[in-house]
Design brief:
The structure is a single chain. The chain is an alpha/beta fold and about 240 residues long. It has a single domain, classed as Carbamate kinase (3-Layer(aba) Sandwich), CATH 3.40.1160. It is built from eight helices and eleven strands. Strands 4-3-5-2-1-6-10-11-9 form a nine-stranded mixed beta sheet, sandwiched between helices. Strand 1, helix 1 and strand 2 form a beta-alpha-beta unit. The chain is globular.
Amino acid sequence: MSAKYRRVLLKLSGEALMGEMPYGIDPGVVRGVAGQIKAVVDLGVQVSIVVGGGNIWRGLRASSQGMDRAVADYMGMVATVLNSLAMLDALEKMDCPTRVMTAIEMPQVAEPYIRRRAIRHMEKGRVVILAAGTGNPYFSTDTAAALRALELHSEIILFAKNKVDGVYSSDPNVHPDAVKFDELSFQDALRLGLRVIDGPALALCQENSLPVLVFNMQDGDNILRAIEGERIGTLVS
């Protein structure tokens, strides 16, 4: 096995960490994902990770029900820290050195995010988990992933989704005739309003020519297959 990429950012869906549970974190799912990440690191790939928080809290949903949007979003950032610590624990139990860095300082549990320090961690073979989004409300973890990938000079963002195996012309759960795209341009993805990835994140990637691969995290060893360059999911570039 050989890796196509030297440095990648992996965006993990928080909801995917639930497994078949209605809420929270399934330790078995986390161990499975950690095993794939360990295999990627063993290939010599430098890995950073952004984890969503949708399995614990969705700020946008709470704000639509009357909660102040900024407060709801900060709660979502804390949820991403919980997921990040679970992933840290699973990786380190597999002897995969890992650091959690947060955009909101909480020194008792994680390092503050400092770009040059994060790069140095990866150069030393450590996985870097980037928690708490951008540290600002009104920005999704998709946008945080795009921002951090650019800051850390990642070659691609791997969007590992929950039960979504790529980008479709419409919601395949609602429209059985929806067409799955193997490849898609940024312009077409934005023009068609395809919402698998947050619009501002997609625009940021387009502006900086950063490719994005969207695939299903639940399908076996898809993270490793993506790193090896196998044609899975949808490539947006």
